[in-house]
Amino acid sequence: QVQLVESGGGSVQAGGSLRLSCAASGRTFSRDDMGWFRQAPGKELVFVATTTWRGGSTYSADYAMFIKGRFTIGRDGPNAVVLQINNLKPEVTAVYYCVAGPRPPTAATRLTYDYWGQGTQVTVSS
Asked: pLDDT tens digit string along 27-45?
C-alpha cells in the first residue's frame, strides 16, 4: 500500500520560512514526479510544484506561474520531496498536499496524479 506522509507545516509569522517534507512508502518513485498542491480556505485545489528524480538529483522542476521565487522544490531521494518556502506571506496559508506518480501529459491534467497525501496545514500570520 502506497503512503505519502507530509510533515513540516505549522503556524509562523510573515517573513519567516518553512520546509515541508514528504516521504513515500510502498513503492519507488525513482522514475516519477513528486510534488505539491495546495488548497487555501474557501478556494480550489491548485498546483504548486513538482519535480522528477534523475541521476541522483532533482530534475525537471515545474512551478506554478504564481510562484515568485520564494518556493524551491527538491527531491531528497527517490521517495522524498521537500518544498522550501521563504519570506512567508499570509496568502501562502493553505493545506499543502504531497503528490506522486507519472507526470500528467498537460497542465490541465495535473490533478490526475496517482497518489496523494493527507495534507499539512501552513498558516502564516501578519
From this structure: 999 999 999 999 999 999 9
